[in-house]
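Suppose a colleague, Dr. K., hands you the sequence of a protein chain of 320 amino acids and asks what its three-dimensional shape might be. Before reaching for any lab equipment, you can write down a predicted structure in token form. Begin with the sequence itself:
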Amino acid sequence: MKRGLLWILLFYAWHSQAQFVHDPVMIRQDSTWYLFCTGNGITVYSSPDMKNWHQQPPVSTTPPAWTKAAVPGFKGHTWAPDISYYNGWYYLYYAVSAFGKNTSAIGVAVNQTLDPQSRNFEWIDKGMVIQSVPGRDNWNAIDPNFITDSLGAPWLSFGSFWGGIKMFKLDSTATRPAVPQVWYTLAARHRDEGIADALPGNAAIEAPFIYKKAHYYYLFVSFDYCCRGEKSTYKMMVGRSAQLQGPYIDKENRRMTDGGGSLLLAGDARWHGVGHNAVVAFNGNDYLVFHGYDAGDGGKPTLRVELLQWENGWPVVKQR
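The predicted structure, expressed as tokens, is then:
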């Protein structure tokens, strides 16, 4: 009886800490961790220990004015934020989109601090960075990820389905493409010609995240399908390159632009689909931050944080 009660208590202790999120990214300011996720106005959580999360007010309560023109009918549900500290400011890139179409745009907001109690706390929207238009562009302006190169210049990778993962150089303000525009394709999967929307079986790749480790840049992407609860098939793939602009190569020496990518982590009997990851370093450790669809809880998208280890120059997840 006592053992049964202990297991019940342990279950509810774990369950009470389950954090329902989509497309999480994490950063630390001082002694507080902050989590930014897909949601109305961008969902925000804070934590003193990376385990117990407390919801904060959203980044915005009303959509920026420019979003309604870019995505007609947009009501504020904002996708896939990406947070970075650059030139003394926090840069929060985010996406607005019509689901299943490349009627999409990436915007950016900046703040001097992430602490909502600070007198300097204020999210300032800097407007649209890039836009994709159906019939004009064979790429989709969602899932942004910011990184600087070896000279400190800012770049933005992004993409979902269509022509795959793209990257371009930003100007010195990190709010617009640099001029002249410099673009690269980093990864792609085969897509049937003439398909206007992101239909099943066609180029299911998205959610880029680039992380520099030792002598390589590592490109993490998600293959297959999110957002289907227990029927989700999301999995995380990775390749590496000595240059930020690529080419990114997997363990089998396949280019990610040709559909390559080595499996990092896939779903299992408990987690039906895992993906849209970020990689962060705290206290000398690297962590993989992502969401998984919990088959033990109705397929809800749930926060996962796993220690990321490295073997023979490649990332490895050894789950608890």
